Structures are given as C-alpha cells and as structure tokens.
Structure to design on (493 residues):
C-alpha cells in the first residue's frame, strides 16, 4: 500500500511557541509510516475566533490561500491545532457548499493568481492517528506504556464541534480522543468540567486574559476535586498554552498555585513509543522555561 | 468569579423603558442572516444557549439576550456591547440548541457587523495587524523563539510565512482587495 502523505500545516503556536509538539509529531508520524510534507509559504490559518469574528470573507480568503498550497500538491492537510483545524476544515467546507462565498473568495484569490478548487480534505492529527493509522497499529508501537500515570483529558472544542457539522464524535460524550490517549497505557481520570473550553478561544484571551484564565481555573479546580491527575493531555497547542503557561499567569493574576504537566497527544505518544523527552524537548514548555522548573519526571514515571 | 462589568441595576431604569418598535433597525436581522447567522429567526428564547455557556457563567455575556435584542432590531445595543467579545466560540450552545439557531455563528455575524461599523477592541486590532506584518497572529518575533526551536532539534525558522516573505506580500494584497486593511487600520483618536 502506498504511504499516506499529508501536508503538515504548522500554524503559529506550534512552530513559534511549542516546537516540541512539531518535533513530537514528526517522530510519531514517522514511526507510524505516515509522511509529513512541508507546506511551504503557509500563513496563519487565520485564527477562526479572531479573523472569523472580524470579517468572514477575509477569514475564508486567507484560509483558502492556505488550502490552495495543498491542492497544488494533491495531498490532504493534517494539523495538530484545534484552531487551525477549525479554520481550514470549516473554510474548506463552507467554500464547497456556498457558491456565493466561493465566488467572492476566488475573486480575491485571483489578485495573487490562485484559485480555490475544493479538491482536498483537511484532517486533524487525531483523525490521521485514529482513522488512518488506527489504534491497533498505534498499540503495536507502544514500547513504554505509561502504566500507573493518572491522565486527565482536555479535548478542547473545535476538533469535534459543531458536532452536527464535523460529524466525528458525540461532543457531549466523546470517546475517540480518550481511546487514542489510552493507547499510551496511562489511566484515564474523568472530571466534571473535562469538556468545557480552556478559555482562550474566540479572541477572548486577547481581549481579557483574566476572564480566559478564569475558565482554566475552573477546569483545574474541577480536576482537583476529582482527585487530581499527573498529566493533562490535549490535542491543541492553544489549549496547551492556556493550560501550561496559564498556570504561570494564574499565579500572577490570582496568586494561586497549580502544578500540572500538560502534554499534546503527540508528545504523549512519542513518550509511549519509547522516545526520550529530550528527543522532542518536553522541557521547553513555557511553564518550565518561565518557572525555571522541569517536568515532574517521577510522576511521569520517566526518571527516578 | 471575576465580574468585569458590575451592572448597576438601579441606574439602568432608562433602559427599562418601553421599546419603540418603530425606532428599531429592522434591517439588522436581515444583515445578520446575510453575514453568517441565517437561522437567527428560529430562536424561541428557551435559553439553552445561555444555560450551557461557560462565558455566561462568569461574565455578563448572555447569548439569549443578545439574540433577543437582535431580533427586536436593537442594533446599537448589540454591536456596542463589550460583552459581545466574551464568547470563546466553544460551540456548546450550537450543539445543544433545539432550534438549530447556531448561536455561535449568530454571535460571530454580529461581531462582523460590529467591526464593520468601527467597534473593534485595540488588542484585536494589533493581532490582525500582526498577520499582515508577519503572516502569523503569533509570529516568530524574537531570537529566543528560534533558539527554542533549535533546542528541540528543529531548524530555527519553520517553512511557513516566517521563512517565505512572499507569503506576507500575498496576504497584504488579499487584505487590500477585501478591504480588511482599512477595517483594521488604527483609528485616529
């Protein structure tokens, strides 16, 4: 069977703030025999809650420009960011189903000699891992199960919502992300507010960081009430930033201490596949850089 | 709980006066439908949206209230409300709405109209400008970010707009064509 190839849409936060996610994705996809192609000259997706809130046509035009890069090569896109996924998937879908929007967008794109054709699909890493590689194959690669590690999840919003449109998972009782994370061997810890937003989206973090952090605080408190966890896993770098760097910001704004290690699902899998945390730079997460601290190696079961 | 706008209930008596339906903007609903909230008129005010809303639980942002005001044609009240910008677009209301109003899309449409009429927050303006300047809302704007990439074993500059400057040129042309550059231009004080 031919090797699956994806255009790798990096976005902003993964390559510019959490490069450990980019590296971990490269490692995990390679291990699974999935090829990631550079998407040369891609821009911001652009941020769905921000640009989508400002001007829908401009949002769809810039997203469509990114889509044309993949259309030229004829391979689907994959991205590790819920926000990028929302922009690219939603724009792709809306353009394919809204002739008037497609015409306006293509009028704009003509300015730079590009044309949206609607010939490719957009996937999230979660889709590529769950539906293309498959859990069975992933389990075969798990050589260092994170046995005994208590794992809470933060699936975030835009990979699965709006549910009627995305048609991926039941957004009230999702199971796909959990099943994917459970292949690592870690123990799933449920908590009441698992499904509420991290607080960062919709241009709220930019408008009022304290309101955004108040969401995050609610999640952390809900998790602590459920007995706490060793790690929180998310499929999104913006959620990761909010949960990870957010702990430093919560200390500053509310003088409250939280100590959670936050992992992107590809970082979790890289560890479970037996890679050392140094191979993708787990310690470069911004909470560790700013606090001059390290991941809780003992709790992660990695170093004694 | 952080409550940024403490609402003065006593002082808002003026707002509680009878709504003169002849002085409202009847075009507003049509505008919202056109801009991206086509289902707004399906709303029967059950409040499932606000009951599901994590932003409404901590701020004065009430989806149901904004939709009701919009349906009444109270355009200015809708587009000038600071709380319009507390929606994180989590889509929980959209997934639960029994009338398929798609409240998140309605809110985004109202935001589009607000921005078109000059109601844009300064920090939002700067993020939009960053995309036109660097191609990214969160740019690779310091050497330390390049060092961070090298530290994890990646090339210092990724193969996106940070490396390909012609991308930024293309984005600027697109923003000019769609009129977005004027929309986000810093307003004179």
């Amino acid at each position: 069977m031919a090797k699956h190839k994806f255009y790798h849409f990096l976005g902003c936060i993964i390559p510019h703030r959490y490069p450990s996610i980019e590296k971990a994705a490269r490692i995990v996809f390679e291990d699974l025999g999935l090829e990631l192609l550079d998407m040369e000259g891609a821009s911001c997706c652009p941020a769905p809650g921000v640009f989508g809130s400002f001007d829908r046509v401009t949002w769809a035009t810039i997203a469509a420009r990114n889509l044309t890069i993949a259309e030229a090569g004829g391979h689907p896109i994959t991205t590790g960011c819920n926000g990028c996924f929302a922009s690219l998937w939603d724009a792709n879908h809306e353009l394919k189903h809204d002739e008037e929007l497609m015409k306006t967008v293509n009028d704009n794109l003509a300015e730079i000699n590009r044309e949206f054709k609607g010939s490719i699909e957009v996937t999230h890493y979660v889709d590529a891992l769950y539906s293309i590689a498959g859990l069975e194959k992933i389990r075969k690669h798990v050589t260092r199960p994170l046995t005994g590690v208590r794992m809470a999840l933060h699936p975030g919003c835009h990979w699965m919502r709006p549910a009627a449109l995305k048609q991926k998972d039941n957004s009230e009782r999702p199971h796909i992300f959990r099943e994917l994370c459970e292949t690592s061997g870690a123990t799933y810890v449920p908590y009441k507010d698992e499904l509420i937003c991290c607080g960062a989206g919709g241009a709220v973090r930019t408008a009022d960081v304290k309101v955004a952090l108040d969401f995050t605080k609610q999640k952390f408190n809900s998790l602590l009430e459920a007995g706490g966890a060793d790690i929180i896993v998310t499929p999104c770098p913006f959620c990761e930033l909010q949960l990870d760097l957010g702990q430093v910001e919560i200390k500053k704004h509310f003088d409250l201490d939280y100590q959670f290690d936050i992992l992107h699902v590809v970082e979790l899998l890289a560890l479970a596949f037996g890679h050392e945390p140094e191979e993708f730079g787990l310690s470069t997460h911004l909470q560790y850089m700013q606090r001059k601290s390290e991941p809780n190696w003992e709790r992660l079961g990695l170093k004694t | 709980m952080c409550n940024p706008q403490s609402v003065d209930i006593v002082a808002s008596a003026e707002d509680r006066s009878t709504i003169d339906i002849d002085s409202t903007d009847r075009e507003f609903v049509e505008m919202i439908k056109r801009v991206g909230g086509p289902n707004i008129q399906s709303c029967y005010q059950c409040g499932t949206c606000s009951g599901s809303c994590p932003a409404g639980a901590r701020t004065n942002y009430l989806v149901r209230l904004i939709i009701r005001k919009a349906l009444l044609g109270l355009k200015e009240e809708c587009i000038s409300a600071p709380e319009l910008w507390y929606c994180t677009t989590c889509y929980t209301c959209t997934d639960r709405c029994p009338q398929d109003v798609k409240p998140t899309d309605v809110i985004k449409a109202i935001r589009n109209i607000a921005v078109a009429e000059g109601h844009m927050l300064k920090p939002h303006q700067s993020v939009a400008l960053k995309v036109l300047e660097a191609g990214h809302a969160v740019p690779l704007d310091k050497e330390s970010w390049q060092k961070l990439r090298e530290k994890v074993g990646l090339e210092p500059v990724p193969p996106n707009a940070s490396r390909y400057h012609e991308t930024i040129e293309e984005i600027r042309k697109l923003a000019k064509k769609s009129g977005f550059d004027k929309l986000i231009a810093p307003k004179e004080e």
Remarks:
- Chain A has two domains: 5-125, 143-300.
